[in-house]
Amino acid sequence: MELSNELIEQITKLVIQEINKSKNVVNKESKTLDSVPSIFNDIKVAERGVNRKEVAIGVGPAFGSIITKTINDLQHKQVIKEIMAGIEEEGMIPRLIRVNKSSDVAFIGKEAARLSGSGISIGIQSKGTSIIHQKDLYPLTNLELFPQAPLLTLETYRQIGKNAAKYAKGALVKPIESKNDSTIRAKYQVKAALMHTKETEYVVNGGNSIDITLS
Predict the structure, then answer these.
(1) CA gap 133, 111 in Å, rounded
(2) CA–CA separation, 157 and 57 (whole Å)
């Protein structure tokens, strides 16, 4: 489905309104998650792991706090539990990391892979877009990409966890079959843009990644 000029104009206006609204309320540099209820507890600044059974799950800076559901209303906590369960089913160890310096799924995944003991990670944005990454790949390359977040289910997230664990083990992996719906982009374009804008407000340039646990 092609985007009409009317729809593009609507999207642009809504995104600009959201950006201007946030600028009027609070200076971007002063934004903090300290007083915001979160599904995670912070542990410490993340360092490179040494356990080869470890598979990192990197989440965006607003994941589970400012934003608590994916674009198709899946609870973030349940999504993370499914990914962790998939990893554990393959005998590997999940490690949760909040990536503060980017809201781009490729760079979230790349940073988490760099810190992962196995060199394998899953990156996930607040809207649900996900990636399986490997530490020696360029940021914009990947092992598997799941760009159509509205089509992802809890079962899919569990399978993403399983596949990431298989890559970490060096096992044979059958890539997850990607669902595709040509109408999705038009239907969710505005919501996706607003969610990404909101998450980007909480990016900290050069900020440390943080080891976290589910609360």
Answers:
(1) 9
(2) 12
SS3 label, residue 4: coil
Q: How distant, in Å, are the alpha carbons of 7, 25, 110, 151, 182 from that of 203? A: 28, 17, 16, 26, 31
> 11-45 pLDDT, tens per residue?
656 655 655 554 444 344 445 666 678 999 999 99
With left for phi above 0 and alpha for psi between -120 and 50, is residue 93 left, alpha or beta? beta
pTM value? 0.86
User: CATH assignment of 40-214, given 3.40.50.10150, 3.50.50.60, 3.40.50.720, 1.20.1250.20?
Assistant: 3.40.50.10150
Name the one residue in this structure whose structure tokens are 């980017």.
102
